Design the sequence.
């Protein structure tokens, strides 16, 4: 195989790897966006719970059922947040594992090109020729 074919193959592999890495990054970013949305929803539900509890304590409104519903909803959101966090961690670990595998693969398949041997150069002056002879005698 020629050097040009090797070059094309390396570029093709690099392009595929970049596409996979971009997809992995996009997947993690999507999960993080969902997580942030769930965290915002949790804050809103805490606020709603606080309002209900305040009206229960101050205004003596009978809304214990609503308070219990909010508590259940908050618990549900917390479970979803835990699941999303675990999914993000798992995606990051997969990405790390892929990166390590690629690193190992690259180390194993790295092609080393040796320079073509150059013909010996003739000395331009008598002094250079004498120095070359002395160096080769050592």
Sequence:
């Amino acid at each position: 195989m020629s050097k040009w074919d090797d070059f094309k193959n390396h570029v093709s592999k690099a392009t595929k790897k970049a596409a996979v890495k971009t997809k992995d990054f996009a997947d993690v970013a999507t999960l993080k966006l969902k997580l942030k949305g769930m965290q915002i929803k949790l804050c809103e539900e805490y606020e709603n719970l606080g309002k209900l509890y305040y009206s229960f304590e101050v205004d003596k409104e009978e809304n214990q059922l609503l308070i219990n519903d909010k508590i259940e909803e908050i618990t549900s959101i917390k479970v979803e947040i835990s699941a999303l966090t675990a999914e993000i961690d798992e995606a990051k670990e997969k990405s790390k594992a892929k990166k390590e595998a690629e690193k190992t693969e690259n180390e194993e398949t790295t092609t080393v090109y040796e320079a073509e041997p150059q013909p010996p150069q003739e000395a331009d002056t008598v002094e250079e020729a004498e120095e070359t002879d002395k160096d080769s005698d050592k």
Observations:
- The chain has a mean pLDDT of 83.
- The CA atoms of residues 111 and 132 lie 34 Å apart.
